[in-house]
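fyi for ur records
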Amino acid sequence: MADVAEHKVAVHLVTPERELYSGEVDLLIARTTEGDVGIMANHAPLLAALAIGPLTLVDGGDRRRAAIDGGFLHVKGNRADVLAEFAELESEIDLAAAERRAERYRSKAEAGDAAAQAELAKAVVRIDLAKR
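which gave:
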């Protein structure tokens, strides 16, 4: 990946356990703690904290998505490193398990429990991606 096409971004999506994706894309869309950000070739250097949310990789007509549970996004040159605390590719998501997780945390989240709100948010991202 040393010779990334000048109109592409080399993306590396990793967690402490594994590398989920490594490849070149036209566009990366990530949810940061400040809002959604789109990364294309020749983007300005960036270091951002990732929020719980979807990550989208667009290459031509091909779209890959993942659920991200926080971490960091580092962009320099035509390389973007997504260092996620935990992530699941859209194709790996178990919809039934995500729905059970949402039900388990919903009432505590509605009562204001911050940990339950985070767990519910993780489940909702997975449900949304799995239903696409």
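The longest strand covers residues 62-76. thats all i got for now
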